[in-house]
Design goal:
By secondary structure, the chain is an alpha/beta fold. It contains twelve helices and 14 strands. Helix 7 (138-145) links the parallel strand 6 and strand 7. Residues 292-349 form the AFP-like domain.
Length: 349
C-alpha cells in the first residue's frame, strides 16, 4: 500500500518518509522556528512538523504538568501556563508554511483543536497528524478526515480496540489514506519498552502504511524500525538539548538528525529486495571460491572412476563439485594426470 504526501509517495516500495518533529521546540519564537526548518532541510528530512494549538482549547488552567514536563521545565506553574508560552499565532504559522516552501521541505502540523484544523486547511497542508493523546478524540478525527488529506495517526497509549475505532472513523468517511504510527508515550522510553514488532501487528490488522514515532534517545530504535518495515519515521529534533522547554531533552540535535537520515538510507540500501540475485562481486568471486572436479590420482585410460579418485578443489571448473555423479562409475577415454581438471568429454558410460 502507498499514498501521496505532497509530491512524495509514501509506502511499499518507497524510501522511508522522514519527519523532523519540531513540535514546540521553537519555544514560542518564530525566529527559532525558522531555524528549525533550516536545520531540518539541511539534515535531509522529507518534512518538518509543528504543533498547532490554543492552550485555552486544549487544557484546563489548573491542569498540572506531566511528569516529564516537570523534569524538563521545573515543578512550578501549570501545564496551561507552559503551553500558553509555546503557542504560535496564525500569522506565525502562515509565515512558517511559506518559509518551508522556500526551503523546499514539506510543512505540516498536528492540530489539537478544531480551529487549528481550519487554519491548517487554509494553509493547504498535504497531511494531518493525530497525536497519540487524541486518538480517542473522535470529533477532532472526524473534522480532520473531512479534509480528505492523508491522516498520520500515532497510537501511543492506545489499545487495539481504540485504534480500530479511530481507523473506522476515518474510513467511514471514505478516506483510506491512513498511516499508523507505533509510538511509546514516554519521554524518553526505555529501549526494552519499544516493542517495534507491534508495527507488523498494526499493518496486518488494519492494512495501512505503518511507521514509528520515536521518543527514545539515540538512533537504535528508528533504524531498527526501518529494518522491520517502517515507511515513516518521526523524530523530535532541536537546535540544542541544553535549551529550556518540555521536549528538547528527548530530541536529536541537527548533526545527529542528519546522521539518522544518512543511516536510515544506508539501512534501506542494505535491505534491498526480496529477489535472490548474485551481485557483480559474487559473480567475480564464484569462479575462484567454488570447487571444480580434478583428478586426485593418476587415472589410466579405460579405468572406471571411483569417487576416491576425485578431488574437489578450487577454482570452479567446467564440472562443478555437484556434478560428480556424472563421472563416477564411468570409464575415462584418456590418461589423466594427478591434479588435472576433469571434463565430461573425457568419459564414456
Amino acid at each position: 500500500m502507498k499514498l501521496k504526501i505532497g509530491k512524495r509517495f509514501v509506502g511499499d516500495g518507497e524510501p522511508c518518509f522522514i519527519v523532523a518533529e519540531a513540535g514546540v521546540n521553537h519555544n514560542g519564537s518564530l525566529k527559532l522556528a525558522k531555524k528549525l526548518i533550516d536545520a531540518a532541510a539541511k539534515a535531509g528530512a522529507d518534512a518538518v512538523k509543528f504543533q498547532s494549538f490554543r492552550a485555552d482549547k486544549l487544557v484546563l488552567k489548573k491542569t498540572p504538568k506531566a511528569g516529564y514536563q516537570k523534569r524538563t521545565t521545573g515543578k512550578k506553574g501549570t501545564q496551561y501556563q507552559m503551553l500558553k508560552r509555546l503557542e504560535l499565532s496564525e500569522k506565525e504559522q502562515r509565515a512558517l508554511a511559506k518559509y518551508a516552501k522556500i526551503k523546499k521541505i514539506i510543512f505540516f502540523s498536528t492540530p489539537y483543536d478544531l480551529e487549528s484544523v481550519e487554519l491548517l486547511k487554509s494553509l493547504r497542508v498535504p497531511a494531518y497528524k493525530v497525536a497519540s493523546a487524541d486518538i480517542v478524540n473522535i470529533p477532532l478525527i472526524e473534522r480532520i478526515t473531512k479534509t480528505k488529506k492523508p491522516v498520520i495517526m500515532s497510537t501511543g497509549m492506545a489499545t487495539l480496540g481504540e485504534v480500530k475505532h479511530a481507523i473506522g472513523t476515518v474510513r467511514s468517511a471514505g478516506n483510506n489514506k491512513i498511516i499508523l504510527m507505533h509510538c511509546i508515550s514516554e519521554y524518553p522510553p526505555e529501549i526494552k519498552d519499544s516493542n517495534l514488532r507491534v508495527m507488523q501487528t498494526l499493518k496486518r490488522n488494519f492494512g495501512t502504511v505503518v511507521g514509528y514515532s520515536d521518543n527514545s534517545a539515540g538512533l537504535i530504535t528508528p533504524l531498527a524500525a526501518v529494518a522491520l518495515g517502517a515507511k515513516v519515521i518521526e523524530k523530535h529534533f532541536t537546535l540544542s538539548r541544553r535549551m529550556k522547554g518540555p521536549d528538547h531533552f528527548a530530541s536529536l540535535e541537527p548533526d545527529e538528525f542528519k546522521q539518522m537520515v544518512e543511516e536510515i538510507r544506508t539501512v534501506e540500501s542494505a535491505l534491498g529486495t526480496e529477489k535472490k540475485i548474485l551481485t557483480k562481486a559474487e559473480k567475480r568471486n564464484k569462479r575462484v571460491m567454488r570447487r571444480g572436479i580434478y583428478a586426485a590420482v593418476k587415472i589410466k585410460k579405460g579405468t572406471r572412476v571411483k569417487i576416491g579418485m576425485l578431488a574437489f578443489m578450487r577454482p570452479e571448473s567446467s564440472l562443478k563439485s555437484s556434478d560428480y555423479k556424472k563421472v563416477v562409475g564411468k570409464k575415462v577415454t584418456k590418461d589423466i594426470k594427478t591434479g588435472q581438471e576433469l571434463k565430461l568429454s573425457y568419459f564414456k558410460a
